[in-house]
Amino acid sequence: ALSQLRAEKETLLVSHASLNESHAQELRAVGEQHAGERDEQLQYARHQHEQSLQTLRDQLSSAAGAATSDLVLGHERECERLEAGWRDEQERCRQLEERTTSVSEQLERRK
After folding, report:
1. What pTM, to 2 d.p., does this model score?
2. Within 13 A of 48's CA, how many CA atoms are on the CB side?
């Protein structure tokens, strides 16, 4: 009876060790599966992040381009305004020169 109990104990120990090994293999497989899923999720999240960054870069570039265009148009308008003012000043100077010449000629005649 004692040897039968020892044999059963040995069988149970071997069976327990086998179950432990089987359980460990299952845990490794599940861990690898979860690691693979986590890697996929991380890759997807990275891809989404990169797309969002690119979208923001595109929006920023577009906004900068629009702002630059607005600045250029503003500068062009300002230059046109200044050129018109300069032409007006040139005309005033021409008229003053004509008056000055006319007055000088009148003074010469009176002498």
Report:
1. 0.45
2. 6
Kindly list the distances between the CA atom of residue 94 and the CA atoms of 55, 67, 99, 108, in Å, as whole numbers in the listed order. 58, 40, 9, 21
Between the alpha carbon of residue 69 and those of residues 3, 57, 74, 82, the distances in Å are 97, 18, 8, 20
The per-residue pLDDT of the chain, averaged, comes to 88
Instruction: List for the chain the helix, strand, coil content (%; round to 5).
Output: 100, 0, 0
Q: Indicate whether 69 pLDDT > 80.
A: yes
At position 29, the amino acid (one-letter code) is: A
With b for 16 or more beta-carbon neighbours within 10 A and e for fewer, the 29-45 pattern comes to eeeeeeeeeeeeeeeee
Mean pLDDT, residues 82-103: 92
